[in-house]
Design goal:
Helix content is 50%, strand content 15%. The protein contains 7 helices and 4 strands. It has a 4-stranded antiparallel sheet. Helix 1 packs antiparallel against helix 2 and helix 1 runs parallel beside helix 5.
Length: 226
């Protein structure tokens, strides 16, 4: 690989108009690459992907301005530490995208344009490959069932024949009271059999629970947060 990829375009911590333009353009391109990969692999909002595009350029601007000045660098780091980047806890993919955008912005700000571009392309390609291979999606078939039953219904064993008919396996995760104790809410994790109808499954359940609320959906992974 040519050594120019790993060589800084800055000289002794100083920059010119051309080097600044090159570093900024590289940072924006890296942001576009990272945002594009994120859009391919995750659910996203317009605000967040716009942030991923611009964040490398913002970090690059800060780094290139304080390059070689330790005092200014410490002052800027202190100012940034007072700012909360996100008010809500982020998912693992969001935090990874933010760190990658900051890392390539840091590389571009130090003049290592080749390293920034190579890193953005490489990590984005790995992310897209893992998405294509469905890496870590072993629980994709597990669903969450919530059944509301009246307090006078003996729910233990009431639905077992229906479960055996439609489900490969199931587990009772939680039983709790609701509506001032007049109702029970059953929560189950389950895997449905192949070629069975979800509608027929729910229809048979509601004939047993007095047509009270029933919900069946995918598990929204709480383990996705850090």
């Amino acid at each position: 690989m040519p050594e120019i990829v790993f060589t800084s375009i800055l000289s002794n911590g100083t920059f010119t108009g051309s080097t600044f333009a090159i570093a900024t353009a590289a940072a924006v391109i890296c942001g576009l690459i990272i945002a594009g990969a994120y859009m391919y692999t995750n659910r996203y909002s317009k605000s967040f992907v716009t942030t991923l595009v611009l964040l490398p350029a913002v970090v690059e601007l800060v780094i290139i301005l304080v390059n070689g000045n330790i005092g200014a660098g410490v002052a800027v780091a202190g100012a940034f530490s007072l700012v909360r980047f996100r008010s809500a806890p982020g998912r693992g993919q969001e935090i990874t995208g933010i760190f990658l955008a900051m890392a390539v912005g840091l590389a571009a700000g130090m003049g290592y344009v080749g390293v920034a571009l190579l890193s953005a392309v490489a990590f984005s390609a790995v992310s897209m490959l893992l998405k294509a291979l469905r890496f870590g999606s072993s629980d994709a078939g597990i669903r969450l069932l919530k059944i509301t039953v009246p307090e006078d219904l003996d729910y233990e064993g009431c639905f077992e024949d229906i479960f055996r008919k439609y489900l490969k396996e199931y587990t009772y995760d939680e039983v709790r009271t609701t509506n001032m104790g007049s109702l029970y809410r059953l929560t189950l994790s389950l895997t449905m059999k192949d070629n069975v109808s979800s509608k027929d499954f729910l229809d048979e359940l509601r004939t047993r629970n007095g047509n009270l609320d029933i919900s069946l959906g995918r598990i929204t992974e709480a383990i996705d947060t850090l």
